[in-house]
Write a structure and sequence with these properties.
198 residues; mainly alpha; Arc Repressor Mutant, subunit A; disordered N terminus
């Protein structure tokens, strides 16, 4: 039977027909730890939960940390840089792609920005309302839609990008220049591997 009481601070409680299950522990950060001991402990915990399946724990730790690093970096830059211009990560990326490579077909722009066509449609509506970008039909092929950066959009991206890059420098300050180059190279290898399989 469920008890009608407030959960402890930070705890999430779920009532089940056979009793109360408490979810009060934070998600383990062991796979993000530097310590080999913590990694071994995490592997043991995972093995205990999953059983005797053959697992690649090094791959699990690498991919888990790629995901975590991407999320914390994105959240920080959205809060500290992009929020000042009321831009989402996707909107910033679209403006950046148009600024660097010029007019783009919508399908190419979606691919370069790493978003779906549906997401791009919503982002472009917002950017158009704000006068930052515009869509138009392709001169040679009316079925295609081109996206251009408007002068106001160019002003924003040119003003914003140095602050964004400063944020990139801050989140990578714990790495030497050589380590940053190595990390970028390793991540490009992962990107190529995934893209070649798709």
């Amino acid at each position: 039977m469920c008890r009608n009481r407030e959960p402890e601070q930070g705890a999430i409680r779920r009532c089940l027909s056979y009793g109360v299950a408490a979810y009060h522990r934070p998600m383990s950060r062991r796979l993000a730890a530097d310590s080999a001991t913590d990694l071994v402990r995490a592997e043991r915990d995972i093995r205990d939960r999953i059983g005797g399946q053959p697992l690649d724990f090094a791959a699990m730790a690498a991919v888990s940390n790629i995901y975590r690093a991407a999320n914390v970096t994105r959240n920080r830059l959205e809060r500290q840089v992009l929020a000042h211009e009321d831009l989402s990560w996707a909107a910033f990326t679209v403006l950046f792609v148009l600024w660097i490579w010029g007019d783009q077909q919508t399908r190419h722009l979606a691919a370069e920005a790493g978003v779906t066509k549906g997401t791009l449609t919503g982002v472009l509506k917002t950017l158009e309302k704000r006068g930052l970008a515009r869509r138009r039909g392709h001169d040679a092929d009316g079925r295609l839609v081109l996206v251009s950066l408007e002068p106001k959009g160019q002003d924003i991206i040119e003003r914003l990008f140095p602050a964004f890059n400063q944020g990139e420098a801050q989140v990578s300050t714990g790495l030497t220049t050589r380590e940053k180059d190595q990390l970028a190279s390793l991540l490009r290898t992962i990107i190529r591997t995934v893209e070649e399989e798709d």
